[in-house]
User: Fold these one by one.
Assistant:
Number 1:
Amino acid sequence: MIFYQFNSNQPMPLKTKLGLIFGIVTGLAILAIFAFTFFLIALVGGVILFVINFFRPKQDRVFDISNQYENKPYKNTSNKDIIDI
């Protein structure tokens, strides 16, 4: 690690400046490579899922929900003593 005193009257050496710039650029480049690789993996996964879903045969999903929510009074056929209100 490079130790540099900020209170000194000497300017920072060129080798130290270049080393810091090189370290920062290298760190940002590695971060960008990993981020772009993660983006490509997610993009390829999304395309694969889209293609699989696109070519999957359609399933018939016909539900008749109109009878499910009708307002029907309670009809008891066996006991006639229940009064419907």
Note: The chain has a mean pLDDT of 79.
Number 2:
Amino acid sequence: MPSIKDAFEEAIQDDNSIIKYFVFAIPVFICTVLYTNKNTLSAFWTASIVTFLLLFGFLIECTKNVRNGKEYVLPSFNVFSIMWAGIKGSVALGPLIAVNCWLAITIINFLGNYIPDPNTITVFKYMIWGVFGAIMLTGYLCYAKTFKIIDAYNFKTISDSSMDILIAVIFMIPQVLIADAIILVPITYIIWVFFGIPHPIATFFWSMVLIFNLAMCGHYLAQIDYEAIATKDNDNKII
């Protein structure tokens, strides 16, 4: 069974983890600074694209490392390799994400024409986005294991495992929030007492927590992959 405790501990105890969280938090911090300055919004969008590709590559690398049984969770300091992983992952998963988002929006808009009650349509929105989100996550996990684009479109695996992954992710969310609270609340309080909020130190700390979250979620998703996909594939082979 996937364990947020294992993901939390191994993401912290990994070699040079604090240094890596510090380094990869820098582009996130730069984006927040650019966003708060109205005169640098064009630079903000450029920095955001670069940062997204870097962090997406970071997430994929973490998932791949854990899923393939590596002794480490975090990627190396090779920013160019991580950036390439983010670019390739975006190319691989972009069509899958685009099609599923389009289908979800189209279905929701169609149902909106026939369901006048806003509460009912809200429930359907969550259900529809959950289903198509699970499909996208399953494609991500299939791709993250091998970095082969064709694996992101393994429709048999997606149809067999997406609902199991959806349930696992639903259970993951509150666990991640609790883990975040353990880190965020006490340190944010100390920063607030000594420096006040908002403050650049608080912003940079939150940026580091974001990177830690990527590592922790990447680890947890790899566990989900093993439980929901690999185990089921092995069962099918035995049968």
Note: The mean pLDDT is 89.
Number 3:
Amino acid sequence: MKILSRDFTLKEKILLGLLVVIILGFCYYQFLDQPVRDSIARSEAQKASLEIELTSVQTKIAQLEKMKTEIDKIIADGSIAPMPSYNNNKEVNLLLNEVFGPYNYYLVFSDLTRDGNQIRRAIKIEFVPRDYETMEAAFAQLEKSKFRCLVDNVQYSKTTDTRGDSMYFASAVVTFYETMVGGTPDSGLPADKSE
């Protein structure tokens, strides 16, 4: 203990002062500077991640706004047909009779298909139009009807009978869409494929 009881020499005081400065510098670096730098680096990485996410969200918002504008335009045009509730069979038959009644026509009904709440009613239509324009007008009348439908697989042919008169034949598969929302299930309704 005699060592501590004597006065320090100038050289020892300078060395002790340097040691204290080094210890304080190390403490500052280890306990203040490094944690702050790490925190800043984490914050910058988080900021970059959030900026990427923000860009993605802004892109989605722009797409949704574009889609909403398109939907509003379609609704304003009146070109969108509602999807009626199941079972819309009677109304579909009335529509088909109205459109194809003036012609000799034949209908082949396929089984209904169901995917979740969506019901598809496919009907093959064969008829004898007066000419190509009549066929086009009939299918256009279906597409512009109050029911949502898809006219597909359209076929048109022309033949000549034994007297030399031209005869035209047309066929297509028309799929009418219905929804189970507000519909009443019955025995003709198939099981849901999505289950």
Note: The helical segments are 2-5, 10-77, 89-100, 132-143.
Number 4:
Amino acid sequence: MEFTALFLAVVIVMLAAWRGSRPLALGLFAAALIASVATYLHHATDALKLSF
């Protein structure tokens, strides 16, 4: 679910960059980047459940 939200956030950033102002697009990009890094760090620290 969070990956869908991140994808939609990036789509909104691209639309803002295409149609809106530059500061708005940069601010939205920064927010999407922070959310992406937070999602990555959340999933990167999960322990893998491997059975060998």
Note: The mean pLDDT is 92.
